[in-house]
Automatic annotation (TrEMBL):
It comes from the Eukaryota. NCBIfam families: ahcY, PRK05476.2-3. The keyword NAD applies. Residues 17-36 have a biased composition (Low complexity). Binds 1 NAD(+) per subunit. PANTHER family: ADENOSYLHOMOCYSTEINASE, S-ADENOSYLHOMOCYSTEINE HYDROLASE-LIKE PROTEIN 1. SMART domains: AdoHcyase, AdoHcyase_NAD. Residues 1-56 are annotated as: Disordered. This is Adenosylhomocysteinase like 1. Substrate binds at residues 108, 182, 207, 237, 241. CDD domains: SAHH.
Amino acid sequence: MQEFTKFPTKTGRRSLSRSISQSSTDSYSSAASYTDSSDDEVSPREKQQTNSKGSSNFCVKNIKQAEFGRREIEIAEQDMSALISLRKRAQGEKPLAGAKIVGCTHITAQTAVLIETLCALGAQCRWSACNIYSTQNEVAAPRLKHGVAVFAWKGESEDDFWWCIDRCVNMDGWQANMILDDGGDLTHWVYKKYPNVFKKIRGIVEESVTGVHRLYQLSKAGKLCVPAMNVNDSVTKQKFDNLYCCRESILDGLKRTTDVMFGGKQVVVCGYGEVGKGCCAALKALGAIVYITEIDPICALQACMDGFRVVKLNEVIRQVDVVITCTGNKNVVTREHLDRMKNSCIVCNMGHSNTEIDVTSLRTPELTWERVRSQVDHVIWPDGKRVVLLAEGRLLNLSCSTVPTFVLSITATTQALALIELYNAPEGRYKQDVYLLPKKMDEYVASLHLPSFDAHLTELTDDQAKYLGLNKNGPFKPNYYR
């Protein structure tokens, strides 16, 4: 109370309240602690910053946060031993020597470990963020010491977002020959704005449902002129990142932003793919009453046999307390649904893109937006009804909390191997199409992570291998297995 009374004015109290609520939601990221309030008022695009080598070819929130960011990266490395192992095994060979990788992913401590691995394997990298809210500012800063040009900060505007991507791609004397994307925005930008650069790309690695969908559209139209690797549908991404990561991070994101108790709450989860399965398992374990919406009869049948009721959204929209989208589609939750929701209903998205909830329809004169805390808005109807919208409909876990490092190690290792495979593949192995990661590599990624659990694989005898028609060393699954 003594501290509070130091701020006698109304403005001062609001400032203090804002700092408290921000730290509660951003506690996973040191940015909340290490950034001066004065920094928030100035766009990084307007600042003049240089690194230790005198270069200003970057744009981050505050380069002075590099020391704190380095500590977070070192923590992440402790649970990414497989990726570090890959780095040590291949470092002497430099399989990515000559590779110029332009990346657009979430910029977190875990991604930083991946970027440093790519650099250790010989690549040059330039990076931007695939989400305007998920960047950890202090983690972006240390990349500059490794010669990685980063253009990203937490809270970018839409204009900033595309400006950062363009600055990554458009640099005199440097032309990308590999793309690592999460969501397809970078690939789309290069394809549209720099067609000559796009034609010279040796390979694209994409890790999201949205981005993969865009690649298949380009391929079907005959406009994909480079080979692409669909990492999203690799087993080590689909069955681990999408499932186990979301099983843990959905609760983290909701708790940090709303302090909600799940026991007895009615929740509808739109989509029962791997992300939906992970979310539902976590919510059910805490006593929530979970409904599922699905378009796919196979996924719907799985939901039924897992003990969930499969419904249409219209049937339950008036009674549910929480709405979670994870379909990869657009307009899953429309203005009509939002109008019919009960007071204080929480609405959020666990898919990559911000198209699942029709947020644009809420920006109308009759509705009032009230910022409650970082990434939490009350949208108020004329009759006083409030809907709690999280992260403005963007990806909840990486915008509002964090994700388990170990699972991200699996995905990052898969991405690194996909880049190595595409970059070193002999001419003719991959045509201008979208490919799945070879199962042998999927299994290699899994094997690198088993020592963390002190797990010991059983080896087939020669007779058993012959009986199954398999090589003793794998692959143990056909290429079509997902």
